[in-house]
TrEMBL record, chain A:
<feature type="transmembrane region" description="Helical">
    <location>
        <begin position="40"/>
        <end position="61"/>
    </location>
</feature>
<protein>
    <submittedName>
        <fullName>Carbohydrate ABC transporter permease</fullName>
    </submittedName>
</protein>
<feature type="domain" description="ABC transmembrane type-1">
    <location>
        <begin position="98"/>
        <end position="312"/>
    </location>
</feature>
<feature type="region of interest" description="Disordered">
    <location>
        <begin position="1"/>
        <end position="23"/>
    </location>
</feature>
<feature type="transmembrane region" description="Helical">
    <location>
        <begin position="102"/>
        <end position="123"/>
    </location>
</feature>
<dbReference type="Pfam" id="PF00528">
    <property type="entry name" value="BPD_transp_1"/>
</dbReference>
<feature type="transmembrane region" description="Helical">
    <location>
        <begin position="291"/>
        <end position="313"/>
    </location>
</feature>
<keyword id="KW-0812">Transmembrane</keyword>
<keyword id="KW-0813">Transport</keyword>
Automatic annotation (TrEMBL), chain B:
<feature type="compositionally biased region" description="Gly residues">
    <location>
        <begin position="31"/>
        <end position="40"/>
    </location>
</feature>
<protein>
    <submittedName>
        <fullName>ABC transporter substrate-binding protein</fullName>
    </submittedName>
</protein>
<feature type="region of interest" description="Disordered">
    <location>
        <begin position="25"/>
        <end position="63"/>
    </location>
</feature>
<dbReference type="Pfam" id="PF01547">
    <property type="entry name" value="SBP_bac_1"/>
</dbReference>
<feature type="compositionally biased region" description="Gly residues">
    <location>
        <begin position="49"/>
        <end position="58"/>
    </location>
</feature>
<dbReference type="InterPro" id="IPR006059">
    <property type="entry name" value="SBP"/>
</dbReference>
């Protein structure tokens, strides 16, 4: 096709109604909220994409190599394989860490929800000193894992720790245990300490939700003859489902991040009784120089987090809150 | 309100969708760049930039960058003395002392690996020589420094530290200069408790007899017989490896290191170790190694199986004197074997200050440097010609043993195992501490040595 023909065709097309309508579309696009708001949302989105999700993707790519931390891996598709993931399946340390991670996730979250709810109901019904108790219960949440790790290490010491000493004082010394040393108790001791730290957080969110429930609901339940427990069980607690979901998600994510607590207390090897995927990932990458294996464990941890968050995000999306 | 009047051409959800698409695009961009940028060797530009600033450029002062984790205790005092001695000999070389504390060296090792990966290592760094350096040797990032060992050093270093200098394998070139040696297979005890229990320490000749003695102490006095930190697996790995040598010999230990199938020997040592667990202090699972060592002067423990760095804690305890309140001997059955844990300095390449690093390595390998460092550190020198007149009697005894003993490289620290092997051994021992499963642990320990 000659150049002249091309120009003639272009001129004909520009005078056609379709072309004018295309131009109008472009103009309205440039005037749209989407285009005009672009300077505000596009840069952070690109930065997030690059530094957060880019890092996650890179971590996955790393897990397909045999990177050991000293020589750069070859990033060619022909060298990629899932060897690290197959190795994981045969590694007893992975299975004990995965089991503990799931137990921690489920039990810690459920216990925190129950404790938080009970505390919230008690504090909500206090006539005096609500502020003081709110602060007392919430304070541990403000402390870092490092502080609470050291704190509980002392508390749990079987010879001079507060817990066993208290048992001795009340004449129940037989209940004293080697809380962190006994493999049968280790994970439960960890969970109890984490519950102590996060129970206050659950309480404060529940308390805020309880305050939004109109007084009429309590009064109506009482008029209908409901007692204290029945009123909460049938009328009030069902209205806290949204808060429960939010708290549960936050607690589950915190449980996956219990690395700092465990690292402070046990170092990089808490033993199969309390090992979790986060600690194992650190150990493999930083102590064993198995960076690709560590990256594979990181990917599994990330997928676990997504699996936990996805139903919540979908729930929020369906409710139009996202 | 105004926001309702404006054209609702895009909902919030559309924004999320579009933002998600943009994010995905940026991720795609990231991976594209990552792929091309990372595989090119030209990416190592950091090294050249740094080389120039502190390097041996022939003009003015050279700055030698040292990284280490000796930031407190005897290690810090020894390091200071080592640097002072170097600067007296080489006033034209400045030292950039750049320590990374914590994690028993893990933090420093993470920093070093990153710097080596970027082609920007320090002049040298503190590390455990031996097989711990095998990854670096395989990657070709450590220099052959045979020229430093020729003559004086090769003549005065014993075989064990020379093997550590070759990253634990005789086929490797010399890549590091070991500075000091700790012995792993030691037994410390509280004299008064042992006498009270009626135990004759000189009569214990192997780990089985040692278990009987632990039982006797447990039976006779209230103080727990064995102080052992079981909060981390490395202390138990030390104990088990000492039991292996004590029950058999140095050759069996070497066979294990070489990956040979010695199932029955490994299982026997595990069974003895499990027997010893019965006599540990009640808080063994909760206390760290420092606290476990201090149980002797506190009167809360009778025996301690530990590396000779533990002597530092005992010497530091007020009113607790060597040979009066506490004593020491090689772990039962291991007399004649020196289980070696060394510290030293590897020589990275490319090196930002090759001439200054050569001088540092020669200094570290000298008798004078090892004298000024090892005394405060509580270790013995790697050289056999060091003047030990100012060292503690304990270290003098250790040094005497070292001259004649068979040296074997430790499994619990780094001289005798690669980082991957070491972590797998500790994983296996960690499981053993929880489940006491001898058969499964023996398999896991031997599998670890084939990695």
């Amino acid at each position: 096709m000659s150049v002249l023909t091309k120009i003639r065709n272009t001129m004909e097309r520009s005078s056609s109604p379709d072309y004018r309508s295309e131009n109008d579309g472009m103009r309205s696009y440039l005037k749209s909220d989407f285009f005009r708001s672009m300077p505000f949302w596009l840069p952070p989105t690109l930065l997030m994409g690059l530094f957060v999700y880019g890092g996650i993707l890179w971590n996955f790519v790393l897990s397909l190599t045999d990177f050991s931390g000293v020589v750069r891996p070859e990033y060619s598709v022909s060298n990629f394989d899932f060897e690290m993931y197959f190795r994981m399946l045969e590694d007893p340390s992975f299975w004990s860490a995965a089991r503990n991670t799931i137990v921690l996730l489920v039990v810690f979250t459920l216990v925190c929800l129950v404790v938080g709810l009970c505390l919230a109901i008690i504090v909500d019904n206090l006539l005096k000193g609500q502020g003081v108790f709110r602060t007392v219960f919430l304070l541990p949440f403000a402390l870092s894992f490092v502080v609470t790790g050291v704190f509980w290490q002392w508390m749990y010491n079987p010879e001079m720790g507060t817990i066993n000493t208290l048992f001795d004082i009340v004449g129940m010394g037989f209940l004293g245990q080697d809380w962190l040393g006994d493999p049968a108790l280790r994970l439960w001791s960890v969970m109890f300490a984490l519950m102590w730290q996060f129970g206050g957080y659950a309480m404060i969110i529940y308390l805020a939700s309880l305050r939004t429930i109109p007084q009429e609901h309590y009064e109506a339940a009482k008029v209908d003859g409901a007692g204290f427990f029945k009123m909460y069980w049938k009328v009030i607690i069902p209205q806290l489902s949204s808060a429960s979901v939010s708290i549960a998600v936050v607690l589950m994510v915190f449980s996956l991040k219990a690395f700092s607590w465990l690292y402070v207390v046990f170092g990089s090897n808490p033993g199969p009784a309390a090992d979790i995927l986060g600690v194992m990932m650190y150990r493999e990458a930083f102590a064993a120089n198995q960076w690709a294996y560590g990256a594979a464990l990181g990917t599994v941890l990330f997928v676990t987090t997504v699996v936990i968050l996805a139903p919540y995000l979908r729930y929020q999306y369906k409710r139009g809150e996202l | 309100m105004s926001d309702q009047d404006s054209e609702p051409d895009l909902s919030r959800r559309h924004y999320i969708t579009l933002a998600g698409s943009a994010g995905a695009l940026s991720v795609a961009g990231c991976t594209g760049n990552g792929g091309s940028g990372d595989d090119g060797s030209s990416g190592d530009d950091g090294s050249s930039g740094d080389d120039g600033s502190g390097g041996d450029d022939g003009s003015g002062t050279t700055t030698l960058e040292l990284q280490h984790w000796w930031t407190d205790g005897g290690g810090a005092v020894g390091m200071e003395a080592l640097q002072e001695g170097f600067q007296e000999k080489h006033p034209d070389i400045e030292i950039n002392d750049n320590p990374v504390a914590g994690g028993g060296g893990t933090n420093l090792q993470a920093v070093i690996r990153n710097r080596v990966l970027e082609g920007n290592p320090p002049s040298t760094w503190q590390d455990w020589p031996g097989a711990n350096l095998s990854d670096y040797v395989e990657a070709g990032v450590l220099k052959d420094i045979g020229y430093i060992f020729e003559g004086d050093m090769e003549e005065n270093y014993r075989d064990g530290p020379l093997l550590s200098a070759r990253a634990g394998n005789e086929d490797n070139p010399y890549v590091a200069v070991p500075l000091n040696i700790h012995r792993v297979n030691n037994l410390f005890w509280d004299i008064s408790s042992v006498e009270e229990a009626g135990v004759d320490m000189g009569s214990i000749s192997d780990p089985n007899e040692y278990v009987e003695v632990l039982a006797q102490i447990d039976d006779q006095i209230e103080t727990p017989a064995l102080s052992l930190s079981m909060a981390a697996p490395w202390t138990v790995l030390q104990l088990w490896s000492s039991n292996l040598i004590g029950l058999y010999d140095a050759q069996t230990y070497q066979d294990f290191r070489a990956g040979e199938d010695i199932t029955s020997e490994v299982e026997a040592a595990l069974e003895v170790t499990a027997d010893q667990f019965e006599y540990v202090t009640p808080d063994a699972g909760s206390v760290g190694s420092d606290a476990a060592r201090l149980k002797l002067p506190e009167g809360n423990g009778v025996m301690l199986m530990e590396g000779d760095w533990a002597a530092g804690n005992l010497f530091a305890a007020d009113g607790y004197e060597y040979d009066e309140h506490w004593q020491h001997m090689p772990y039962p059955g291991t007399d004649g074997v020196y289980n070696i844990n060394t510290d030293g300095f590897p020589y990275p390449q490319p090196n930002p200050t090759p001439d200054a690093t050569d001088k540092w390595m020669q200094w570290v390998g000298s008798a004078e440097a090892q004298r000024v460092f090892c005394d405060p550190k509580g270790a013995i020198p790697c050289r056999t010609d060091v003047d030990l007149s100012e060292f503690s009697p304990l270290m003098q005894e250790q040094f005497e043993d070292f001259q004649s003993d068979t040296g074997v490289l430790t499994l619990a620290h780094g001289d005798g195992v690669s980082p991957q092997q070491g972590t797998s051994l500790k994983n296996a021992m960690s499981r053993f501490m929880d489940n006491r499963n001898v058969e499964a642990t023996a398999g896991a320990l031997m599998d670890a040595m084939t990695l």
